[in-house]
Amino acid sequence: MMRFSDFNGKEIIDLMNGERIGIIGHTDLVIHPETGKIEGFILPRGSFGFWNRKEEFYISWHAIRKIGPEMIIVERREHLESY
Prior knowledge:
It is built from no helices and 8 strands. It is mostly beta strands. The chain has a single domain, classed as PRC-barrel domain (SH3 type barrels), CATH 2.30.30.
């Protein structure tokens, strides 16, 4: 069993191209209201300045392929979308 704090600081890497998607830190969880299970993460990405638009991406829990000590590998092809 993992706690959400165990995810903090892990890099999220795209399985298909090795791209760094982001780091779990200021991440929101999407939790199913009836079961309490994690459905996914909302990951901030991009700049947060006055002129820059904040982007957020949703990563489904089903997109996670491997959780390692320093990174999380996801298959983003169909599970990562603008939120």
